[in-house]
Amino acid sequence: MKAGWTVSGTVVHGRRLGHTLGFPTANIEVSDDWGAPDGVYRARVSVDGAIYDAMSNLGRNPSVGGCRRRLETHLFGFDGDLYGRTLRVELLEKIRDERTFPSVESLGRQLAEDRATILQRIGSESVSK
């Protein structure tokens, strides 16, 4: 499902669970009424003029106790500190709905599958150009 939602925001601290699972994320708070539906997306991120492919989760983290709605984005190929920096995140394609997992381990396995799916779609897109 093609998305087409874009948001800019300042990266804030989260719980660092993504980092623990091997998927560090840049967290941006979004309002409850921001129109994009909750879920996992293939994304593109602009930071300081550089563009990165990415994987984003929009929602409330139901598997780990929940939180305020936010956008968490894992930038492929980025290594550095993004806290306090402004990102522009474009949600390109919804991969799946946000859902509750029975354990943190099963969440981690799903994130790895989501990443593989997104990287495959990025590869397919570049081949078709």
Task: Give a quick rundown of the structure.
With 129 residues, the chain is α+β, with helices and mostly antiparallel strands.
Shape: globular
- Give the amount of beta strand, in percent: 35-45%
- Gyration radius, in Å: 14 Å
Distance between the termini: 19 Å
Q: What's the average pLDDT?
A: 86
**Spatial sequence of strands, sheet with the most strands:** 1-6-3-4-5-2
| DSSP summary: helix tally | 2
Low-pLDDT residue intervals, each spanning 5 or more residues: none
Secondary structure: helix percent: 10-25%
Provide structural commentary:
The two termini are about 20 Å apart. The protein has about 130 residues and is of the alpha+beta class. The mean pLDDT is about 85. The chain is globular, with a radius of gyration of 14 Å. The protein has helices at about 15-20, 105-129, and strands spanning about 1-10, 25-30, 40-45, 50-60, 70-75, 85-95.
Outline the fold blueprint.
Blueprint: E1 2-10, H1 17-20, E2 26-29, E3 39-47, E4 50-59, E5 70-75, E6 86-96, H2 104-128
Antiparallel strand pairs: 1-6, 2-5, 3-4, 3-6, 4-5
Features:
22% helix; 129 residues; alpha+beta; globular; six-stranded antiparallel β-sheet
